[in-house]
Amino acid sequence: MNNSRDRNDVTGKVIRIISKAQLIINIGKASGLNIGDQISILGIAEDIFDIDTTEKLGSFTFVKDILEVIDVQGNYSVLAKIDKYSIDPFGLNNDDDEEVPYIDLSIDFKDIKPLKSNEDKIIRLGDQVKLLS
Predict the structure, then answer these.
(1) Contacts of 106 (CB under 8 A, 6+ apart)
(2) CA 122 to chain centroid
(3) Residue 14 and which of 40, 66, 70, 97 are 20 to 30 A apart at CA?
(4) What contacts 12, CB < 8 A, 6 or more positions away?
(5) CA-to-CA distance for 6 and 123, rounded, in angstroms?
(6) 3-state secondary structure 48-115
(7) At 55, is the pLDDT very low, low, confident or very high (cuts 50, 70, 90)?
(8) Do residues 27 and 10 lie in contact, with contact meaning Cβ atoms separated by under 8 Å?
(9) Using CA of residue 78, residue 43, residue 50, residue 104, what is the dihedral sign?
(10) What single DSSP character describes residue 5?
């Protein structure tokens, strides 16, 4: 890959789950992947439509997990979740995993239509993947 824009467009799929800790995706060196690259495993919750035209605007996606490339070959890579320990005895570390409190909007509650559950964090064959820049 010659520039960062190209790397942002790198997508593929989970093609094999080889253990409870590792899986294979169908993108590798030929797509610019390197050991240590982070890959997001994506899920699709549902299609989103324009309220006036009913035109499909796209699909709402969510991140199931973020994995790291641990082995890269020409057209595939092996991914795993790397357990990174953080020792913070004084509580000074701002934990990014903490839930962010949201402020309620002024809305008409009857217009709320929750997205289908995006709590399905199970990684499956065929799940989409994307290189994180």
Answers:
(1) none
(2) 12
(3) 97
(4) 25, 26, 27, 31, 128, 129
(5) 26
(6) EECCCCCCEEEEEEEEEEEEEEEEECCCCEEEECCCCCCCCCCCCCCCCCCCCCCCCCCCCHHHCCCC
(7) very high
(8) yes
(9) negative
(10) H
The phi, psi pair for 5, rounded to 5°, reads -60, -45
Q: How confident is the model at residue 128 (pLDDT cuts 50, 70, 90)?
A: confident
d(CA 105, CA 46): 23
Instruction: Indicate whether this model's pTM tops 0.70.
Output: no
Smallest CA-to-CA distance from 126 within 61, 32, 41, 39 is with 41
Q: Which residues contact 35 (CB under 8 A, 6 or more apart)?
A: 69, 70, 71, 72
> Which tokens in the block code for residue 109?
């509650």
**Size of the chain in residues:** 133
pLDDT at 98: 52
